[in-house]
Amino acid sequence: MTVRRKPGTARAGTKNRGTATRPARKGSGPRCGLCGKAGKLMRTECCEQWICDDEDTYVIFSYARNSCSRNHRRYTLCGYHSVEEHSGDWRECQQCRKDIETEMYVYYGTNDYNFVKLENPPSYEPTRCKKCGAVIRLAEDAYTMKGAGYYCERCSPVPW
User: Fold this and answer.
1) Given a cut of 90, is residue 119 above it in pLDDT?
2) DSSP string, 41-59
């Protein structure tokens, strides 16, 4: 679940780190920790890292992955941990581990949207299509779920 707050507001008991923007001059000052760009930057709410303040460029329902701030908030354990308001360090959070299926937990902890990657991620069996047995990469491939089963795009019981 993603919680979106109005700009300029912070959750109770926290500083409002995620909305302050500052233009950076080229060659000096902070740069985005993910893409390296200078310019319109902000600090993440979760880990206080410099990141592009570019979520306003995201086109709703496009599923594009071109926003550094959105990618970090939505596709990392660090972002999930913060949005869900868990306590402590995300790398040691048992609630995050319990909430997220192992394959996605590993993806969220090791992808390129992280500033710090999960060390020693747990192993897992690949997800397979219930009908044909093809491997489905949950973070990358199209699939549907029906009951406890996953179906690849080709075998989906729902027409695309």
Assistant:
1) yes
2) EEE-TTT--EEE--GGGPP
